[in-house]
Design a protein that fits this description.
Polyamine Oxidase, Chain A, domain 2; 7-stranded mixed beta sheet; globular; 462 residues; 21 strands; alpha+beta
Length: 462
């Protein structure tokens, strides 16, 4: 057994790296253990020929500033750049790509004129959505509800089919009938509670015009953040190809590695997927393990293609599109990467990405790699008028990588926190717990790092 380390961090994704960075900033000694051969988790940037693309998440949400702030602290502030204009996104309906209504919040029009102008919804659907102004708010004091339940009662069934399912649930690769409004979109619930109507609340929003849009990225892709974090940490603090097989506790936490080595630590921060955390903490607290195991995950895949511009008939003016389940396509969304981000493809070339799988179509993930690539190529070709073969194609599978914050998720997290209170020095963070996007993961990880530092300081004082 080694001499005790102040903190051991298990998991080298963005949550683990951000936790390590916060501890380092506070002068706390730590060691980060990552099972894979590279840090970063789902943040992965590829370069093929002169094309640059992210295989996992590719954008940082400006409205949630934690990731942007981290980039600036790491010296990447001058490299941040926004999505290219126009920033239109589209939804497929009856073989036609319709732009999202202008002046909208997550696809919900902010005013009746924007709703009237869109061709995405039928006349009856528009009328039902406009009637949201007169729908009485929920006052029964009931708990959480699904995205489908909330959008359905506020805006009607057509809004669920052509907006909530492909967009609000789609960005989480989740099931619209299961994902939690309270966990994922509390802003909508607060609008209903405070104003009695979501439309009425959104109509009062005064959004200053911004040249930056809603998202930012980096020229070399989001893996620049991972590389900058690694450079900012002590060279000997990260151990790759190092798996943790068990955790025990006596006076300290004992971490058993797959190499047979055993490490002792005063504090342990688990930054793995919740199902992996369940395995790690089972000896410490079976009830805590059971709670972690209740967080479901979905698998998905991305297929990226490079094409000659002249082979793609569609103008590609925008960032991409999502597809409702009722349209019965193999892919659930597509991204026009070279239109969305500048300098990602050579002159005269375009870069496209298709998304498959998720909670709505888990069976597709059982297909062979070649089948997935062919299906994505066919769907993109049909929708975008593509002739000829791609310059390249690249498939990335993300097995159980999409945490599903379903109805009741926040209750599970509250119960996890109660169990953790009985295990001083043990902490959890990551997308399976308090936030699914990069900004949320960074924010919670840094808050967790601060809590760890404070706990260590308090225990030394006592």
């Amino acid at each position: 057994m080694s001499d005790p380390i102040d903190v051991i961090i298990v998991g080298g994704g963005i949550a683990g790296l951000a936790t390590a960075y916060e501890l380092h900033q506070r002068g706390v000694r730590f060691r980060l253990l990552e099972r894979a051969s590279r840090p970063g988790g789902v943040i992965l940037t590829e370069q093929i020929q002169d094309f640059t693309f992210d295989a996992g998440p590719d954008a940082l949400l400006i409205q949630k500033p934690a990731a942007i702030t981290l980039c600036r602290e790491l010296g990447l502030g001058d490299r941040l750049f926004p999505t290219s204009e126009p920033r239109a996104a589209f939804i497929l309906r009856e073989k036609t790509l319709h732009p999202l209504p202008e002046s909208s919040v997550l696809g919900i029009p902010r005013n009746v004129s924007a709703l009237a102008a869109t061709r995405l919804f039928s006349i009856a659907g528009k009328a039902r959505m406009a009637a949201e102004l007169f729908i009485r708010p929920r006052t029964d004091g009931a708990g959480d509800e699904s995205i489908a339940s909330f959008i359905g009662r506020r805006f009607g069934a057509e809004a669920v089919t052509y907006l909530a399912e492909p967009l609000l649930a789609g960005i989480h690769a989740g099931d619209v009938n299961r994902l939690s409004m309270r966990a994922l979109f509390p802003r909508f619930l607060e609008a209903e509670r405070k104003h009695g109507s979501v439309l009425r609340a959104f109509r009062q929003i005064r959004q200053p015009k911004s040249s930056s849009g809603a998202f930012m990225s980096l020229p070399g892709g989001l893996e620049e953040i991972v590389d900058a974090l690694v450079r900012a940490l002590p060279a000997d603090s990260i151990s790759l190809n190092t798996g943790v097989v068990a955790v025990d506790r006596d006076s300290e936490y004992c971490v058993a590695l797959d190499s047979g080595e055993r490490l002792s630590t005063r504090s342990l921060v688990v930054c793995t997927p919740a199902f992996a955390a369940a395995t790690l903490v089972d000896r410490l607290d079976p009830d805590l393990a059971s709670l972690c195991a209740q967080v479901p995950y979905a698998s998905s895949a991305t297929v990226t293609f490079g094409y000659r511009r002249e082979d793609v008939a569609h103008p590609l003016r925008g960032s991409g599109f999502v597809i409702p389940r009722v349209e019965k396509t193999t892919i659930m969304a597509g991204s026009w990467i070279s239109s969305k981000w500048r300098s990602r493809a050579p002159e005269g070339r375009v870069l496209l990405r298709a998304f498959v799988g998720g909670a709505r179509d888990p069976e597709v993930m059982s297909r062979m790699d070649g089948e997935l690539v062919s299906a994505a190529q066919h769907e993109l070709g049909r929708l975008l008028g593509i002739r000829g073969e791609p310059i390249f194609s690249k498939l990335h599978r993300w097995d159980r990588a999409n945490a599903q914050h379903d109805v009741g998720h926040l209750d599970i997290i509250a119960a996890i926190d109660r169990r953790l209170a009985a295990l001083p020095g043990l902490f959890v963070t990551g997308s399976g717990f308090r936030g699914v996007g990069i900004p949320d993961c960074v924010a919670d990880a840094r808050a967790t790092g601060a809590q760890v530092a404070q706990w260590l300081s308090a225990t030394r004082t006592n």
